[in-house]
Every structure is written in structure tokens, then in C-alpha cells.
Amino acid sequence: xxxxLLLLALIAFAAAAAELKPVxxxxxxxxxxxxxxxxxxxxxxxxxxxxxxxxxxxxVAMESRLRSQGFQLITxxxxxxxxxxxxxxxxxxxxVPAPTxxxxxxxxxxxxxxxxxxxxxxxxxxFLYDRTGKKVRSFFGEVSLPELEAAxxxxx
Length: 156
Prior knowledge:
By secondary structure, this protein is of the alpha/beta class. It contains six helices and six strands, in the order αβαβαβαβαββα.
């Protein structure tokens, strides 16, 4: 009986873990296109990035406040596949809404360039898209969250 309960608890825990869907250059374009009709913020982060971990709870809170107005937050971790469990655990702890992705590029430079030609790949980085799927603003490094929220609200 104890073993069955433990197994059920492990299954429930595994089911609750954030699913990190792999995304490459072509997949990223589809992710953005799939959010048409909403104002979209795509945040690139990693577990080893202190500013990324620091801003994530604030991004989640902002998404929760603005979701009803048509705002969506999508996160993409730049962690290596062997860190996927740590990334998933962090997302669960921070209560980051799905969908969540893990960068799986064949060529990092091409992937980064496909997101934004001015982006060096440094983290954190966030990209803001209007309801038509057009990128309207890029935020590199630590960003002023009031400035970010103001930019989002202009599009809502």
C-alpha cells in the first residue's frame, strides 16, 4: 500500500513538472505566430543567470495581472539539455505558466539572429510582439520592469 501511494505521488509530481518543449529557429517563428491576437512577451533565461531568476517572479506576476487584457508570457530557457530538470523545477517553483520551451538550436548564432539581429545572445533577453505578431521592442539584459510593463500596456 505504501509503495503504491509513493508511486502515485511520484507520478503526480512528474505530471506537475513544467514541460519544456524544444524549440529551434523554425519552431520559434511558429511559437510567435501561434500567439497572434495577443500581446506576447518572449523571455529568454537560464538557471545559471542570476538576473534571469530574479526577474522571473515579477514577469509571472505581471502576466497574471495582464492576462485578461490579452497578454501572454512565453519563456525559453537557454539551459543545456542536461539542466532541463533544474530549469523545469525552477519554472514550477516560480509558477511560470505554460507554454515553456528549451532552446534546441542546430546553430546558436543562426537561432539568435533569427530572434533579433541585434541580440548577442546575452541573458536575460525579452522580445515584445504586438497582436499581429510583429516584434515591436527588444529588451537586453536587466530591464526596468515598470518600463517593460508600460511598453506592454501601450499594445493592449
